[in-house]
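Handout, section B. The chain below has 142 residues.
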Amino acid sequence: MLSTPWKVNLRWSDLDPNFHLKHSSYYDLATQHRMDMLQHYGLTLDDMEAGQFAPILTREECLFYREIKYTDKVFINLKLKEVNEDGSKWILVHEFVDDQGKKKAQLTVEILWFNIKSRRILKPLPDVLSNAAKRIINEIGV
């Protein structure tokens, strides 16, 4: 698991009419969490743009356990569930938890690293991505 839980800052636009986190906000928050995590490990949007590669989702699923209210203190923990042999496919699990550690939701994504120019899976991984992946695996494991 990523050593530092990511604090969620809820916005008014994240809420449904019942003042709970709406379903689409879980996906948006997890996406931002992934991008912040990559940045934390040294892979920036500038690197991706310059190298013409990006992560693409092939599967995304959220299991909802408890409602999240606007006043809740919420964090996202990240787990790297699986990485294939060449590093081009990752499965990540985002766990939404409250400040007591109770799981509120679990969002799982399967991503492929994609060459934007050739429109194919990225093989081999560029050094900047490979180095970030090694740092991630060393810290949060598989």
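Note. The longest strand covers residues 103-115. Compare this with the example in section A.
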